[in-house]
Structure prediction request, 384 residues.
Amino acid sequence: MTRGRTALIYSPLFGTFDYGSDHPFKLQRTRMAYDLMDAYGLLELPAMEIRDCNPISDELLLSFHSPDYIARLKEFSVSDEARADFRYGLGDAECPVFKGLYQYATLGVGATFEAARLVEEEGFAAAFNMNGGWHHAHRSRASGFSYLNDAVIAINWLVSRGRRVLYLDIDAHHGDGVQEAYYDTDQVLTISLHESGIYFYPGTGYEDEIGEGRGTGYSVNVPLLAHTDDALYLKAFDEVAYPLIAAFNPDIIVTQIGADTFRTDPLTNLEITTHSYSGILARIKRLKIPWVALGGGGYDLMNTTRAWTIAWAIMNGVELEPLLPSSFIELIEPLGYQNRILLDAKHWAHEPERDTALISLQQSIARIKKSIFPGILGNHGHLT
Prediction:
């Protein structure tokens, strides 16, 4: 099997659902990213394929989610009738109920499962599902715009096949649902770089959340204060995530690559740009570990469009021109977008906020190296 092949998992049905006009989660971002990839010629590369997907089966859903929760999702998906069941996190402003909800959610999980299957069974080097990364979904509760936890369902299948999996989350929000699923196992190492839960949703993801039982030391969290910029973000990755990934040496890496860390995202407070975002993804690519990538957050449509196009280019080893293609500019101008640039310059946050973020990061790194590194590096071999 050729390890250089890549797959983009894409269904035209992704764009047929809607959280509502006032909801910040805009599903058209997937189509915009697809169009920008097309404008750059990234959908006709010799070693890539575009693969469709099917809704995930109930059997695989039940590897994580509870039967009563799945039944309620199905019930609420039948019509547009206004309904809510807050026991399951359904029907509030965050996780609205709409007709076709179950079909939408299971299709997204099916896309992530197909990405994992292609990497595991067909030898693809990387597979990317932009319409995935629903890391806040819990076993019996929707949360944070997430109804079903696609990453957990795919990882469970990989683990059932004897694979050791590393889950890396660089979304601005802590990957709480995924951490919860693997908090007591050493078969999956979860690493999340995110905005601090001191003041930010979901209020979890502190350095002392390190797992329990056999999983002690296999949950790693790097909380970042507001105004964390490109240099600090790369410092967090290079000093914590990168050495742990290399030491754990997983069979497969699953990444949630949300773009809501960007400095102009309307819902977050970090100051990341394409500079550090692409730097992290390039480092992952160089590890040459079979790679499943999932979309995640991103509430500025052009940020997300640019980020996922950059991600797909990196997975395929393609360097892109820094100016957006004229054909794409013609497409977005009537929509009111004035963007012309794909790549951002490296950004430095203003002092003294940056100094505060740096001091906090240094303290977090010290705590993690004391509590996590001896176990992971000791159990799986030191870097050479």
Remarks:
- The chain has twelve helices and eight strands.
- The longest strand covers residues 188-195.
- Residues 21 and 27 are 11 Å apart (CA to CA).
- The chain has a mean pLDDT of 96.
